[in-house]
Amino acid sequence: MEFFETVKNRRSIRSFTCDEILENEIKxxxxxxxxxxxxxxxxxxxxxxxxxxETKHKLAKAALDQSFIEEAPVVIVVLADLNRSKLxxxxxxxxxxxxxxxxAATQNILLAAVALGLGACWVGxxxxxxxxIILKIPEDFKPVAIIPIGKPAGKVNMPQKRPIExxxxxxxxxx
Amino acid sequence: MEFFETVKNRRSIRSFTCDEILENEIKxxxxxxxxxxxxxxxxxxxxxxxxxxETKHKLAKAALDQSFIEEAPVVIVVLADLNRSKLxxxxxxxxxxxxxxxxAATQNILLAAVALGLGACWVGxxxxxxxxIILKIPEDFKPVAIIPIGKPAGKVNMPQKRPIExxxxxxxxxx
Lengths: 175, 175
Known about the structure:
Largest interface: A-B, 71 and 71 residues
Strand content of chain A: 15-25%
CATH architecture of chain A: 3-Layer(aba) Sandwich
CATH class of chain A: Alpha Beta
Oligomer: homodimer
């Protein structure tokens, strides 16, 4: 799919058909993720692929009962490797770059899903401690996104977006 | 350009030709940015378009003397609107969602640049306070990325990327 079309077609998909996601498709999603930029090319990311129904149920609970998470055939949990960024950049690495780098990778996954005819949703509201226990995540990794992915069960309208004139400034913020 | 080709062709471009960037191209970059997802559709982003040579010089200085910034015909500075996220989500909004949302928008700009035949670089290392003074940015906005953009002056090889096997896990992180 053409790039700008991909961006325009992306929606937050919270309803999925029963169709499975192929291993080849998962690989393409993670391949897009790992090609994201990162500060100093540190690549502070890991991805957990969850298909187990019980685990998805627990993740949905940890994500404030967002039950659509367990209805997706595949859930990708994105982790920030805090030590990788800290070793190179200290606090700015942990508090900023690590979050930005994994967000760029997450955005690549969301767009790649659209390009493959799939739908996904970036879930950010969840109990990090619970997710770490459920997925046996070591201390120095921070779960930063839960992404349920599947074939969209229906059409979703584009939510209202702020117009360009409201968010663009020229030369300085304040004139 | 096809989506996966766009992702594969993206490089951090630090050398630019003298060609100008059209206003129409800038609008397409910002249009891609504003279509990024954001927590609760809060869209906590603003973008400053800088073409003035003196301002670009000051930004390069604020970015630890990364002089390639001032060689780009256009520099986009991405701002996180901390209050927008804080009002809705408190500390998690300020420390996580605001950074992630603006990172997703930044990633859309980088990919859109590739799709338009342009090149860009995500600069994260800079003195935030200096950038705020240079661009007259209000207190509650945080500059999160400086993006020099132009026609690439040459080819750049893909930096080494971690292989999928190293970053992917199935069902749990630890087996």
